[in-house]
Specification:
Elements: H1 2-30, H2 43-47, E1 73-77, H3 101-113, E2 118-122, H4 133-145, E3 150-155, H5 162-168, E4 174-178, H6 184-190, H7 199-212, E5 216-223, H8 233-239, E6 243-248, H9 272-281, E7 288-291, H10 293-296, E8 302-303, E9 308-311, E10 318-322, H11 323-326, H12 328-332, H13 339-344, H14 353-356
Parallel strand pairs: 1-2, 1-8, 2-3, 3-4, 4-5, 5-6, 6-7
Antiparallel strand pairs: 9-10
Helix pairs in contact: 3-4
Length: 360
C-alpha cells in the first residue's frame, strides 16, 4: 500500500504542476504579454504596489505593464514656504517640511538614472531654505555630480544675493524670476509687494547679475484679473530674457481654490478669450512662450517636498508614493503626466546654457 502511494505521488505532483503552469499561461495570455516564459517577470511585484491615487475598485489589468513615461524634465518643489502671498499661488505653504539634503540628492540621482535631463527647483521660495545654500548645493550636485544638461531655478528673486552667484552661478543654466506686472501697485495687489523694496528694480538687478555670471535669464508671468490689460512689450524687450513664460491663471482645488485652500484665486481668474487677447497684444515679443490652462494641466512633472509626483488631472494635486520608497518607475505611473502634451507645448527646448550661445 505504501509503495502504491509512493508510485502515485510523482504523478500527482506533476499533475498539480501542470495545472499551475496552465493557469499561469492563461493569465499571461489574457494580459496580452509577449514576454518569453524563460524571462523573469519583474512587473509582478509592481502589480500589487499600493498607491494613494489608484482608482477605487479592482485595478485595470494593464496598469502594471503600461510603459512608464520618462522623467525628462522634472519640477521639484522642495519647499512650500514663501515670503510672498501671491493670491493665485498653486503650491501653498501647507507644510514646512524639507527633505534632508542627502535624501534629496538620493532622489535626484534616482531621477537621473530614470532618464531625467532637466531639473527645475521651485517652491514656495527656493532661496528661503538656509539662505539659498540648500538650493545652491542641489544645483551644484546636479551639474557637477549628475552632469545634467540643464539645471534651473524659479524664484521671486527677493532673497537672491550676488554672493550666491559667485559661489553657485557656474552650475546654474537658467534662473527664472516671477514677475507679473511692471506696475508696483499691481504687484502689491497680487501679493508680491516687498515693502520699501521695489520688485521691478530688483528684477533689473538680477538681470545684470545673470549677464555677469553667465546664467540664462528667464521671466515667468501669471496673467490674471489684475494685469490682463497691461502692455508689457517695452519692458520685456528691454530685459531680453531667453524665454518669457506667460501662464493663464489656473485653479487647483485644495491649493488656491475650495474650502480647504489657503488662497482664493477665483477673483484672479480670466477667461480663455481674455488670455488670448493678452497674447495677441504681445505677439511681437520673440521670446514669448504662452501656456493656457489646457496646456499646463497634464504636461508638467511636479515633484513635491516628499518627492511624490502630483497628479493634477482631476483639478487637484493627488500625490503618488514617494520615489524614495517605491522608485521612480512605480511612482511616475500615477503622476498623470502626458508625455505627448509635454512635447507638444514645447517642453523640450535648448535648455543648457552651453548650447544657447548667448551674448552675456
Amino acid at each position: 500500500m505504501h509503495l502504491g502511494v509512493l508510485r502515485r505521488l510523482p504523478l500527482a505532483v506533476l499533475a498539480a504542476l501542470c495545472r499551475r503552469l496552465g493557469a499561469l499561461c492563461w493569465s499571461l495570455a489574457s494580459l496580452s504579454l509577449s514576454l518569453p516564459l524563460s524571462l523573469p517577470l519583474p512587473g509582478w511585484r509592481r502589480v500589487s504596489a499600493p498607491s494613494p491615487v489608484a482608482p477605487a475598485g479592482p485595478r485595470r489589468e494593464r496598469d502594471w505593464d503600461d510603459a512608464a513615461p520618462t522623467p525628462t524634465s522634472v519640477n521639484y518643489h522642495f519647499t512650500r514656504q514663501c515670503n510672498y502671498k501671491c493670491g493665485f499661488c498653486f503650491h501653498t505653504a501647507k507644510t514646512s517640511f524639507v527633505l534632508p539634503l542627502e535624501e534629496a540628492k538620493r532622489g535626484l540621482a534616482m531621477l537621473k538614472e530614470a532618464g531625467m535631463e532637466k531639473i527645475n527647483f521651485s517652491g514656495g521660495e527656493p532661496f528661503l531654505q538656509d539662505r539659498g545654500e540648500f538650493v545652491g548645493k542641489l544645483v551644484q550636485f546636479c551639474k557637477q555630480e549628475l552632469k545634467l544638461p540643464s539645471v534651473s531655478i524659479v524664484s521671486n528673486g527677493s532673497l537672491i544675493r550676488e554672493r550666491w552667484f559667485t559661489k553657485y552661478g557656474e552650475y546654474l543654466d537658467i534662473l527664472a524670476i516671477s514677475c507679473d506686472s511692471f506696475d508696483e501697485n499691481v504687484n502689491v495687489l497680487i501679493g508680491r509687494g516687498q515693502g520699501k523694496k521695489n520688485h521691478v528694480e530688483n528684477l533689473h538687478k538680477l538681470r545684470q547679475w545673470c549677464r555677469e555670471y553667465a546664467v540664462a535669464f528667464k521671466i515667468n508671468s501669471v496673467i490674471n484679473r489684475f494685469n490682463v490689460e497691461e502692455d508689457m512689450n517695452e519692458q520685456i524687450k528691454a530685459l531680453n530674457p531667453v524665454r518669457w513664460k506667460v501662464f493663464q491663471c489656473l485653479l487647483i482645488e485644495g491649493e488656491n481654490s475650495g474650502e480647504d485652500a489657503l488662497r482664493e484665486a477665483e477673483k484672479f481668474v480670466i477667461s480663455d478669450e481674455e488670455f488670448e487677447q493678452f497674447l495677441g497684444r504681445h505677439k511681437d515679443v520673440s521670446c514669448l512662450v504662452p501656456e493656457s490652462n489646457q496646456k499646463m494641466r497634464d504636461s508638467y512633472l511636479i515633484l513635491d517636498e516628499y518627492m511624490r509626483f502630483l497628479n493634477c488631472r482631476n483639478g487637484r494635486k493627488e500625490p503618488s508614493r514617494s520615489i524614495l520608497d517605491v522608485g521612480v518607475e512605480a511612482a511616475i505611473k500615477f503622476s498623470g503626466f502626458d508625455e505627448k502634451m509635454f512635447l507638444k507645448r514645447g517642453g523640450k527646448y535648448v535648455w543648457s546654457k552651453a548650447d544657447m550661445k548667448l551674448d552675456w
